[in-house]
Specification:
The protein is mainly alpha-helical. It contains 6 helices and no strands. The protein has one domain. The two termini are 22 Å apart.
Length: 152
C-alpha cells in the first residue's frame, strides 16, 4: 500500500482508486491480501456502494488541518490558494457538495482528470493549468506533512 507519510495526497487518491476498482470488479477482491483487506474494510464501514474508507477520510482531515494551519503561517501558500480559489469554486458549484473543502476539491479535480485520461479524453489547456496549480498545492502540503512526520 502507498505510504501516507511519504505522500499523503497520493495515498488518498490511491485509496479512492482502489475503492472504485473494488466496486467495479468485486470478483478481484481476493487477488491480493491488500485488496482483500481493503474490501473487508469497505464492507465493515458500509461503503460498498459509495463513499470513502475511514482511512481516506482521516488522511483528508489531516491534510485539511495542515492546510488551515498553513493559511495562517505561510504567505506563499496562502497566495497559491487564493490564485486557485476561483477555479475551485467553479468546480464545487458543479457538484452536489458545493461547501466541500478546497483540499477535497483539489483531490477530486486530480482524480477526475486521471479518469478522463484513462478514457483517452482530451483535457483543455485551462483544465491543465488548474491541474498544475492544484498539483503544486498538494505537493507542498504533502511535503510539509512528510517533514512534520519526520520531525516527530
Amino acid at each position: 500500500m502507498r505510504s501516507k507519510q511519504e505522500n499523503i495526497a497520493e495515498y488518498i487518491l490511491y485509496l479512492w482508486q482502489i475503492e472504485d476498482y473494488l466496486r467495479a470488479f468485486p470478483q478481484h477482491a481476493e487477488a491480493t491480501p491488500e485488496l482483500h483487506e481493503l474490501n473487508e474494510m469497505m464492507h465493515r464501514e458500509g461503503i460498498v456502494e459509495g463513499g470513502h474508507l475511514a482511512l481516506a477520510n482521516n488522511a483528508l482531515s489531516e491534510l485539511e488541518a495542515l492546510h488551515a494551519a498553513l493559511l495562517d503561517e505561510d504567505a506563499m501558500y496562502r497566495a497559491a490558494i487564493i490564485r486557485l480559489t476561483p477555479q475551485l469554486n467553479l468546480l464545487k458549484a458543479k457538484t452536489d457538495r458545493p461547501t466541500m473543502s478546497d483540499i477535497e476539491a483539489c483531490l477530486i479535480l486530480l482524480y477526475q482528470i486521471m479518469l478522463l485520461r484513462l478514457q483517452k479524453k482530451e483535457i483543455s489547456a485551462e483544465t491543465a493549468a488548474v491541474q498544475q496549480q492544484a498539483t503544486q498545492v498538494l505537493q507542498f502540503l504533502s511535503k510539509t506533512y512528510y517533514d512534520n512526520q519526520k520531525a516527530v
